[in-house]
Amino acid sequence: MNRFLASTLSTLNAVFALLIILVAAASGATGGGYYYGGPLSLTGAIMGGLAGVLVAALICGTIAFLTLIERHLSVLADAAKKNGVRE
Predict the structure, then answer these.
(1) Does residue 86 belong to any structural domain of this protein?
(2) What is the pLDDT of residues 69-84, one digit of tens each?
(3) Would you say residue 21 lies in a domain?
C-alpha cells in the first residue's frame, strides 16, 4: 500500500508542477488579477512562467527527490530480504 501511495504521489507531483507553471504564467499575463479584462502581457506571461518554474522546482523537486529516495530504499530492502538479512 505504501508503494502505491508513493507512486501515486510521484505521478501527481508532475501534474502539480505543470499546474503551478501554468497558473504562474497566466497570472503574469493578466497582471495578477483574477478577473482581468485588459490585454494580455507576453512579457508578464514569460516572467510568470519563469517564476512558476522556480517555485515548481523548489516544491515539486523536493517531493520528487524524496520519492526517489523512497524507491532506492525499497530496492535495498528487497535486496536485503532476498539475501536473508534480518531487520
Answers:
(1) no
(2) 988 998 998 888 888 7
(3) yes
